[in-house]
Write a structure and sequence with these properties.
Residues 119-144 are annotated as: Disordered. By secondary structure, the protein is α+β, with helices and mostly antiparallel strands. The chain has a domain at 54-109: SH3 type barrels. The protein is 11% helix and 26% strand. The chain has helices spanning 23-35, 54-58; strands spanning 61-65, 77-85, 90-95, 98-103, 107-109, 126-130, 141-142, 148-149, 157-161.
Length: 163
């Protein structure tokens, strides 16, 4: 092979042009192989099914997302509100004594902790400010040199008595 010389292919690589292929046999074989092909079912990505998460159906109390502009440090959700009737895409809530229909997209289940309140027994506790045991309000404490020691009023100790 030389630069600028035309490319030539030897005759061994090319089929014999004089041989006549059987066209009818070739067409029937092609039709049979195409007939055996089956189409694959298409996936439908454009029709989403509305689905409600399970935690929305089991929640009794929910928060509602506030879509309006918020001030700084204002919560994203209002509530909690009581859930009356769940639906497919909208729930009915009890807000201010009225039934209001709200979309599922705006709801968030409220996970509230039930805390038992202790019972009140007897009289309430009395908190009395008292001075230390070694001090009495009438006596003065003096140092070795004879100077009077005055304690500031904010250093008084509060003693809580449990009855």
């Amino acid at each position: 092979m030389m630069y600028g010389a035309p490319l030539t292919v030897s005759g061994e690589f090319l089929p014999n042009a004089k041989s006549d292929p059987d066209v009818k046999r070739y067409l029937t074989q092609l039709r049979d192989s195409v007939g055996q092909l089956h189409s694959i079912p298409m996936s439908t990505h454009d029709t989403p099914r509305p689905s409600v998460p399970n935690y929305h159906c089991t929640a009794n109390i929910v928060f509602i997302r506030c879509d309006a502009r918020r001030k700084s440090l204002q919560s994203h959700y209002d509530g909690p509100y009581e859930l009356i009737c769940p639906g497919d895409k909208s729930f009915q809530l009890l807000i201010g004594g009225q039934q209001v229909t709200v979309s599922v997209d705006r709801l968030k289940p409220a996970h509230l902790v039930q805390v038992a309140q202790p019972r009140n027994k007897g009289r309430p506790r009395q908190i009395t400010p008292t001075l230390g045991k070694e001090q009495s309000p009438k006596s003065r404490i003096t140092t070795r040199t004879g100077r009077a020691v005055i304690t500031p009023s904010r250093s008084t100790v509060l003693i809580v008595s449990y009855m």
